[in-house]
Write a structure and sequence with these properties.
Elements (H helix, E strand, L loop, with lengths): L1 E8 L2 E7 L8 H8 L9 E5 L8 E5 L9 H14 L5 H8 L12 E7 L1 H17 L1
Parallel strand pairs: 2-3
Antiparallel strand pairs: 1-2, 1-5, 3-4
Length: 135
């Protein structure tokens, strides 16, 4: 089973997937995850790919295309890392967010945890495998 966490910040729903602990989704899996009826639903999918020392992630739109991250995405990431108990190198966050990153702990985003079943996880993998076979 895979666990994802969704956050709502400024009317944008972010799904955070820990790509180091769970499945590393590809473009087609992200499209299915983000779909509001066939999947879980999200406007943006953040795949955590770093560590506490170098907190990095990949950001995708609901269509599976890579997006450029802004301040809001880094605040969501910082919130996720704190909630997950992942020790964060403050200097890395300050590099992206500025000095306000250290005081960013006050934001409270609405969030919820979703447990992805093994059956749905198999569908995600099948989608990615099928798309890579075509390419």
């Amino acid at each position: 089973m895979m666990v994802v966490r969704n956050y709502i910040a400024n009317n944008v729903e972010y799904m955070v997937v820990n790509g180091l602990r769970d499945y590393m989704p590809g473009r087609e899996a992200i499209r299915l995850l983000a779909h509001p009826r066939k999947g879980i639903g999200a406007d943006r999918v953040m795949v955590f790919t770093g560590s506490g020392q170098v907190p990095s992630f990949r950001l995708y739109g609901a269509d599976g295309r890579s997006c450029t991250a802004g301040r809001e995405e880094y605040l969501v990431l910082a919130h996720y890392l704190r909630k997950e108990g992942i020790a964060v190198n403050a200097a890395e966050l300050v590099k992206f967010l500025g000095d306000g990153a250290l005081a960013a702990g006050g934001e409270e985003f609405r969030s919820f945890e979703i447990h992805v079943t093994d059956s749905f996880l198999a569908r995600l993998r099948e989608r990615d495998e099928a798309s890579s076979a075509v390419a």
